[in-house]
């Protein structure tokens, strides 16, 4: 491995606490992260895509992106399918080698492993991670009727620390394998990208950059100077230019709606009217009938009518964007013009005000995730106020801390993790936290992120999650229980605070959470707590061979065993 790549891998491994892994495993995680971050702008756990170990079918990384979201289990897939009404899927396979050359035999094994994965009757031994993704793939194929825009796209990446020189023999192996995968009939497009040291270094450096797009914005007016606003424009842009903002070259929609207080709602009256306008080919009326979209960016570089927009979010227009994306193959749709407002500001308070104001025209249900609400912002401030030796950082916007040095990835608590830990520990529902996080919030309407809630229950649930992950990494808790981590967290809360919970806005809950926090910050007490929780789990009678625990009856078994334990 060359010195530059080795240095980058070392820095990455320190940031992600991979020091105990050997160099090939560190490089697998490094390459997986660099490749996926180019395609998916949201936050993700390294273990979400890492498959490299025994029975990996010569595949070190495997990911499934659906409608711009990284999918990690079948429940998430089903939630997205039900919510959106269409499926745009990309499946990606990654193989890494620390060797300084490209091997035809290794490339052939990689392609063979992919073909075996895609086959109806795989013959290669599959580890648990491969099996989980295989079940997701099969579930996706069963929903092919929802692939109204295109069939899935297959992306293959072979990463080496050598130099790719377009060797004719290697290209022949790649072309032959790619053709065989195309002939399966599953895919709209199949690509194979060989990456050497320089390519993977470039991809990793790009993870520090924010999303940017360049559009032609001819029909616009510049709005007057406004305090706190660097620049702002109002106008209309052609349909094809708008697509450049919301999707990539493979027609996969970007994850640029994190700051939008509504998820895409698919079949509702507003969306039916938007789609009806397009179905009836009233393209010229679209810009008059639609309220338009609002884009908030950190910076913009105009060059004549060409505008490069960086670090942006569509804060109002999620529904419009998804419908336009869904209807992009309609004949003549290029005649559509989209009303658009582009606002450039670095002021978070102004961003929040714009988000909430522009989303006030239609109902925003309280159970839907308000990623930039006052509560979310105050929760972030609360996290920053907790001064510990390993501070946690609440990430209310995806990749918020990507370019901040000195922060380990395990210290970053994303909104999905916060939702799952709080719901598991304080709503006694670890069996309900699989699936897409927007759906999880709906399940707990009015019970999570309520403005009258104290912040410390959220913080202490995140701290418990962080400490448990550390315990797994250090070998203090059996890694077999990672599949039951949210159940272990519930038991830990029961042991530390008791079964009866005080109201989330009370002083009593603050005092009990503070005591729980102190136990978690004491390494000896913390490990004892998790080991006791693990023992209760083992003694509960739950089937230890299951891959996931999604039944309420399993949570009831845990509660019964806890009560038995606490009565001794």
Helical segment tally? 20
CATH 2nd-level architecture of the largest domain: 3-Layer(aba) Sandwich
CATH topology of the largest domain: Trna Endonuclease, Chain: A, domain 1
Distance from first to last alpha carbon: 57 Å
Number of domains: 3
CATH structural class of the largest domain? Alpha Beta
Question: What is the total tally of β strands?
Answer: 13
Largest β-sheet summary: 6 strands, mixed
Helix content: 40-55%
Topology:
Elements: H1 3-15, H2 23-39, E1 61-66, E2 69-70, H3 74-84, E3 89-97, H4 104-118, H5 128-142, E4 153-160, H6 168-182, E5 189-195, H7 197-206, E6 212-216, E7 219-222, E8 231-238, H8 239-246, H9 269-279, H10 286-289, E9 293-303, E10 306-316, H11 318-326, E11 337-344, H12 348-358, H13 374-385, E12 393-395, E13 412-414, H14 415-426, H15 437-443, H16 456-474, H17 485-497, H18 507-521, H19 523-539, H20 552-566
Parallel strand pairs: 3-4, 4-5, 9-11, 12-13
Antiparallel strand pairs: 1-2, 1-3, 6-10, 7-8, 8-11, 9-10
């Amino acid at each position: 491995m060359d010195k530059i790549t080795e240095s980058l891998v070392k820095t990455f491994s320190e940031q992600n606490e991979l020091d105990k892994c050997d160099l090939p495993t560190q490089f697998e995680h490094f390459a997986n992260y660099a490749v996926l971050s180019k395609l998916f702008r949201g936050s993700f756990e390294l273990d979400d895509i890492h498959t490299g170990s025994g029975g990996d079918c010569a595949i070190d990384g495997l990911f499934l992106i659906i409608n711009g979201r990284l999918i990690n289990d079948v429940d998430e897939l089903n939630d997205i399918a039900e919510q959106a009404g269409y499926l745009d899927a990309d499946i990606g396979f990654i193989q890494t080698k620390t060797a300084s050359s490209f091997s035809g035999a290794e490339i052939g094994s990689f392609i063979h492993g992919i073909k075996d994965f895609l086959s109806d009757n795989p013959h290669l031994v599959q580890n648990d991670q491969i099996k989980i993704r295989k079940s997701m793939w099969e579930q996706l194929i069963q929903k092919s009727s929802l692939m109204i825009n295109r069939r899935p796209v297959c992306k293959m990446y072979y990463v080496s620390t050598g130099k790719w020189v377009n060797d004719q023999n290697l290209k022949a192996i790649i072309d032959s394998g790619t053709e065989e995968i195309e002939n399966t009939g599953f895919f709209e497009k199949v690509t194979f990208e060989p990456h050497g040291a320089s390519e993977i270094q470039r991809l990793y450096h790009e993870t520090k950059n924010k999303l940017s797009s360049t559009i032609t914005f001819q029909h616009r007016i510049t709005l007057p100077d406004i305090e706190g606003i660097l620049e702002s424009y109002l106008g209309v842009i052609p349909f094809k230019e708008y697509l450049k903002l919301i999707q990539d070259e493979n027609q996969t929609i970007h994850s640029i709606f994190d700051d939008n207080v509504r998820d895409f709602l698919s079949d509702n009256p507003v969306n039916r009217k938007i789609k009806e306008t397009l179905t009836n080919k009233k393209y010229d009326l679209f810009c008059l009938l639609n309220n338009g979209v609002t884009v908030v960016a950190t910076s913009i570089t105009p060059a004549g009518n060409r505008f490069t927009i960086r670090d942006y979010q569509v804060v109002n227009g999620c529904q419009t964007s998804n419908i336009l994306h869904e209807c992009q193959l309609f004949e003549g749709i290029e005649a559509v013009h989209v009303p658009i407002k582009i606002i450039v500001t670095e002021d978070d308070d102004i961003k929040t005000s714009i988000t909430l104001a522009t989303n006030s025209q239609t109902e925003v249900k309280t159970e839907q995730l308000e990623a930039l609400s006052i509560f979310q912002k105050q929760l972030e401030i609360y996290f920053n106020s907790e001064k510990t030796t390993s501070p946690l950082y609440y990430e209310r916007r995806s990749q918020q801390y990507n370019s901040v040095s000195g922060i380990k990835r395990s210290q970053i608590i994303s909104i999905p993790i916060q939702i799952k830990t709080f719901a598991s520990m304080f709503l006694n529902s670890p069996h309900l936290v699989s699936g897409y996080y927007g759906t999880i919030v709906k399940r707990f309407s009015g019970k999570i992120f309520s403005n009258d809630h104290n912040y410390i229950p959220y913080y202490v649930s995140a701290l418990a999650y962080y400490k448990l992950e550390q315990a797994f990494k250090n070998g203090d808790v059996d890694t077999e229980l990672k599949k039951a981590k949210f159940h272990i967290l519930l038991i830990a809360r029961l042991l530390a605070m008791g079964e009866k919970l005080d109201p989330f806005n009370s002083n009593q809950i603050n005092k009990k959470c503070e005591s729980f926090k102190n136990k978690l910050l004491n390494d000896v007490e913390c490990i004892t707590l998790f080991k006791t929780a693990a023992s209760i789990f083992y003694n509960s009678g739950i089937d230890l061979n299951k891959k996931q625990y999604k039944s309420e009856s399993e949570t009831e078994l845990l509660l019964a065993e806890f009560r038995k334990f606490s009565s001794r």
